[in-house]
Amino acid sequence: MDDQLEDFKKTFFEESADLLGMAEMHLMDLSITEPSAESLGAIFRSVHSIKGGAGAFGMERLVKFTHSFESVLDALRSGKISIDKSRHDLLMKGFDVVSDLVREAKGDVQLPADREAAVLAGLNDWWPQEGGHGGGNGAGAAKAAAPVKKIQKFIIRFKPLRTLYAKANEPLLILRQIKNLGNAIIACTTGGIPTLDRFDPEEAYIGWIIQIETDIGEAALMEVFEFVDVDSELSIQLQPDGPQTIDTPFAASAPAISQETHQDVAKTTQAPSPAKEAVKEKEGGEKTAAVTSIRVDLDKIDRLVNMVGEIVITQAMVAEQLKQLDIENKNLMNGLESMQQHTRELQDSVMSIRAQPVKSVFQRMPRLVRELAGTLNKDVRLVTSGENTEVDKTVIEQLSDPLTHMIRNSVDHGIEMPDKREAAGKPREGTILLSAEHRSGRIVIQIVDDGGGINRERVKQKCIEKGLINPDAQLTDEEIDNFIFLPGFSTAEKISNVSGRGVGMDVVKKNIQALGGRVNVVNKPGLGSRFVLSLPLTLAVLDGMVVTVGQERYVLPLTSIIELLRPTPEMISKLITHGDLIHIRGEYIRLLYVHDVFNIRDAITNPADALVVLVEVDGGQKVGLVVDEVIGQQQVVIKSLESNYRQIEGVSAATILGDGRVALILDVIGLRQILLDRAVTKNPAHTLEAAL
Known about the structure:
Strand content: 15-25%
Shape: flat
Strand order of the largest sheet: 14-18-19-17-16-15
Number of helices: 24
Structural class: alpha+beta
Number of strands: 22
Radius of gyration: 33 Å
């Protein structure tokens, strides 16, 4: 039972997270001048559902706050009260409190006792309730002043239907909640249980009769059953004697009550209202749609992904063994090709299960921009596009922090103050564009603002002050712009609550690189800046090109490869200051010898005798990787190198090939950085850009 209760709680917390996210999205879209009834209804239902679940699990603090919050939302959607900007802010703070209380109920945080006090006082001032702080309109004040402390006795007859159990509701939790509301005696009615030969294990046969003395009123008692009343036979009857003490033990009459049949209980049940029937019909009509999706534990999906990865490796091993056996069996080869095709389809299907739209991350940003703009007294508008672009769930989980940092930087450092924008001929309101799209097997996310851009002179001056560069250093614009990714680097004149400590962009770059991605900045002083994040769609499997260097084998991501070529001696140029270059179609491209990077013996050192793999790196630049031979294209399973060994410069991960050998997956961005570092080391008088 304890395990089942924990499972129910886990489901409640997952649903609460979804409900809060959906409600926050509607709240951000809520117009103050013309609030949408649909949005108000969606927000109310979210809070109402969280309150109901919290009540079932005895989370009193969460129930108390959501009850007040729900009352305000109900009055708002019914037009009894109106909203303005300050009240809209109060609703946002209310959602923060609900979110915090859910996290506390989950055991993630320990909140101070007065966490919700200020917001609760604001809600009660807006729409006074029973026990509130007064104020507001007359109707609310009258409601707050109504006497409610009256002891009354009720008889509750509660018999669940089979649909109640089918929806994973637990009557025992409801009975426990009732018992906490007053002096209650509960008796079970078992008269409806049939003989064994007619017994249906999926049917509901038992019910309960509850006698309770309480001061909370009939409406409050009904709230306990509000999520199950359409799935049960329920009646709540006030005893005519009114306030009284229990002078006859209810237990004495329990045997007689327990003899009540299923029909007896049904007779005493109040006739369902048309509204309730409508709800039942509606729920019945939604059953077909409800089964189109299910909630699955992420661990189960991860195990499935790992299993698919093992199948990919095993399939590669079988293909390798067949190749070595040199068997000319057409049927066998056809079967292997079919298996490869089915494995690819299986992998795509499994990956699609983990794929989620980036909307879950994007929808957090409008509020961030709104609050930051308010703090900084700026006018900023956020425009999003491509929210439905899908990417692996693991990638999405890692995106939130980098995007938050970059949006904060755009609002704080990018967008100018309204007067300054107006003086520069710009609209007073700044615009930030947040977009996502699939491009060449990767997801590309851009953050573009129409602010002032990066002040290169100031960045350069800061670098000189910190001793990062010499005062007479000749740097390109790109090199200056990229200094913002250095740890602790900041051009802010003073530290504020928003930024200025130089913590952020270096973390962004580190997190993105940890995901196998990269981040570029395109700066146009006076016109704005563009940050481009390029990330893999999944962290599990990739299409790669297997190459050999000496006796070693490496994997290059297929999406980075432009072309393969075997150069002639005339195409190779050797320059003292720039290393070896290859001349192709009027373009000079720097060569990088992989055997030199990893110190591999017995590799081919003459590029005219080897192969050159042209790969694309940041900003569309190219590098030619010199390798001995190309084995072929292959799908490989990514194994984290840092988790199993340690980080290696120029290597992003490892994999297991069909012959059982471990191969390293090369990081072309990291290889390019090695190339740049070596060029500067050998030729300190030259700039990094000149090295290419």
